[in-house]
Specification:
This protein is of the alpha/beta class. The protein has 15 helices and twelve strands.
Length: 361
Amino acid sequence: MAEKIAPVAVDAMGGDHAPGAIVQGAINAARKGLAVVLVGPEARVREELARRRAGRDLPIEVHHASEVVEMCDHPGQAMRRKKDNSIRVCFELVKSGEACAMVSAGNSGAVMAGAIFVLGRPAGVERPAIISVLPALKGAPLLLDMGAVVDCKPSHLVQFALMGEVYARRVIGVPRPKVAVLSNGEEDSKGTDLTRAAAAALRRAPIQFVGYCEGRDLLTGEIDVIVTDGFTGNVALKTMEGTAKVVGEYLKRAFLSTAVSKIGGLLAKRSLEEMKRRLDWREVGGAPLVGVNGVGFIGHGRSDALAVENAIRRAREAARTRFTEEIAAAVAPTEALLAADASTPPPGEPHPASRTASREA
């Protein structure tokens, strides 16, 4: 008998195209059998459902929330002053078990604040992180943090690596994820005090740590979990998004430049469409939070119905794995790892001589 799982709570009022695109995305997900509870001003949400002729047979519920967090609102203040805002109510549904996960394309800072205020953090977790699943040549590598913690300490990077390893293993399904710290070179001497301290600690961690990786490694798929501070991670992600857009425009112009190139474009249409799909951020849907007692996904502010539908699907899949139950145990060794002498290998284990050697092993 299939396990019954609670619906995904969706912030109907979050995002540039809310509530219309959000409601449509929820309808699309519901038509594929995914149970959803839309959270927002009930009259307005039901009006959107009626406009789209969403039948009562669809697994969609509506939960009233009288307030909305605007993009200009201060995240912490909004959570304290607007007690009945749609983001907070989504998290309260998750906490009570009435929802298995939540999705919001609204104020990302408010989503993070709501997760901490309502759900709290597992024992030992210092800071939650935001994960991005990268459109790599193979696999589904994770990059974290994506902006939750801009000014990091070594302990934060260590915990990001440990939490990311759990997510890659439990949710993505990688049996033994390869973990690396993003740096400006592969050699141990590269990086900053922050990355060197974190890397030294992670060499002793009970995970497959392969050392440093560079920006050129982000989309190869050779590494499963790539760790960095929120500032660098956010810049890297936005750079990739911009590059994909420019490359797409270059290809479009090239294939339209001459009659011969137009024919070539028609012949390559299927392959180009697949490439476009792989690079489309909407296919990912949302960025999961790790380091809180529940499942939350942050959608892009420009999320349309496709992005919302995919975020709902991925949030439900993540909730089914119960990965959050393993986070506290994963981060427990953090202090000991940082305190240990990195030049001394753990008992019975050789010191990893290089990233390459570790990968080949």
